[in-house]
Amino acid sequence: MADMDELDERLVTLLRQDGRRAISDLALELGVARATVKMRMERLEQRGDILGYTVILRADAVEAPVRGLTMIEIEGHVTERVIKALGGLAEVSAIHTTNGRWDLVVEVATGTLTDLDAVLGRIRRIPGIANSETSLLLATPRSTRAKL
Prior knowledge:
Elements: H1 6-17, H2 23-30, H3 34-47, H4 58-61, E1 66-74, H5 79-87, E2 92-97, E3 104-110, H6 113-124, E4 129-137
Antiparallel strand pairs: 1-3, 1-4, 2-3
């Protein structure tokens, strides 16, 4: 994305807001020809800057009131098994591998603190998890994730 000019950046911003927006609407808002928008989109896709377009479900865009990051230490060589188990929990929105003291960072979202406590209990009982630490997310002053 380092080779994007200001027009590319504005185009990507509009596509992040609505990936299904018509090329003619994008061209009108950007003040350029439809052919320019089409060519820019194709170039961004070919270079790999735009990897694809997706559907955002309401459940994915509306934030749960209680969110946290759970750092997980894994014992042994069972990382893939732990990731699979974590991926089966509806409250887990993302799983990241990392370096340093923790092996995984897991994003968790629930409706209440009681629900979060229950999910953390289920996470701690997954075989292979040696230790965990959770930090609550209090506010999100900036995010590139879609919001409704």
